[in-house]
Design brief:
Number of strands: 6
Distance between the termini: 69 Å
Strand content: 5-15%
Number of helices: 10
Number of domains: 4
Shape: extended
Largest sheet: 2 strands, antiparallel
Oligomer: single chain
Order of helices and strands: HEEEHHEHHHEEHHHH
Length: 293
């Protein structure tokens, strides 16, 4: 233990030796050090799955209709009123809509073009390499090179065929629906590398390949082109306006009509309120939403 304190990061410990114990020559060695707790790993994010088919819409509308919405506007603060309205609707959802919690794990990057043909080619290459490392003959080396080149060609071919399949599916996929955006996200994951060509740095003749340095070069270029040169001319006078903007009125029936026509297939926003709930409770929440404006 003493060797551990004195040899491992000695600057992080303070060591002192006390007087001998009694008539013996043994001394107490006291070491002080700071103990830092390891950081708490954040729990994986969770997603609430609402079962709208078994929802008690009548009970939810009754709950929202009888709620005293005037408490939302006592502080005369829009943010406070918005938070109270949102939390009230979420409370009603928890009471009258069955739900389940799903943990979201980080998805590993997938190479969907790696099929059975590619796996067989990869296995043949690994087997040929193992034979070459075992016996080390020229024949085994040539067989490994052949298997390696064949594997590379097969993977390149299968990736090309997979991209062609995605292209055909993209043309056949209807736009502006949930399946389209799910498919678009899947396609995007296969092209995660930057598509900008290499750029030359401003200060040196070196090539810039990462996205951050490319963005800085573009930002400096746009800033230099958008800078107005100093001039002695004064800006033109701004004419005085004699007209005014008329008052804008928000009516409950207008808010009700907008809520009733929401697309239930749209994804939930950052407030956690699904469009399905806003649509089915439009009559009960149109007035407090109107008062926000």
């Amino acid at each position: 233990m003493l060797d551990l304190f004195l040899t491992t990061s000695p600057g992080k410990h303070s060591v002192r030796v006390t007087t001998p114990l009694g008539s013996k020559d043994h001394c107490i060695v006291v070491s002080s050090f700071l103990v830092i707790n390891p950081p708490v790993q954040p729990s994986p994010p969770k997603k609430i799955i609402w079962n709208f088919k078994n929802a008690n819409w009548e009970g939810l509308n009754q709950f929202l209709s009888t709620f005293d919405w005037s408490i939302c506007f006592r502080h005369k603060n829009v943010d406070t009123a918005t938070n109270i309205i949102t939390n009230t609707i979420l409370l009603g959802m928890k009471l009258f809509i069955p739900s389940s919690v799903k943990k979201l794990s980080k998805k590993q990057e997938k190479t969907d073009w790696i099929n059975d043909i590619c796996r067989k080619a990869l296995k043949d290459k690994e087997d040929a390499f193992s034979v070459y490392k075992t016996i080390g003959t020229n024949t085994a080396r040539d067989q490994f090179k052949t298997a390696r080149n064949k594997c590379k060609s097969i993977i390149k071919r299968q990736r090309f065929l997979y991209n062609q399949k995605l292209k055909r599916k993209t043309l056949e996929q209807p736009a502006n629906n949930r399946s389209f955006w799910s498919f678009a996200k899947k396609v995007k994951n296969n092209f995660c590398d930057s598509t900008f060509p290499p750029l030359i740095s401003d200060n040196s003749a070196t090539l810039v390949t990462n996205s951050q340095e490319k963005a800085n070069i573009f930002a400096r270029m746009f800033a230099s082109n958008s800078t107005i040169s100093p001039s002695t001319q004064s800006p033109p006078p701004i004419p005085e306006l004699t007209c005014s903007i008329p008052k804008i009125y928000f009516r409950s029936r207008t808010v009700f009509k907008i809520l009733s026509t929401l697309d239930s297939k749209k994804s939930t926003g950052p407030d956690g309120l699904p469009a399905e709930v806003l649509k089915n409770t439009a009559a009960a929440i149109c007035k407090p939403l109107r008062n926000l404006f």
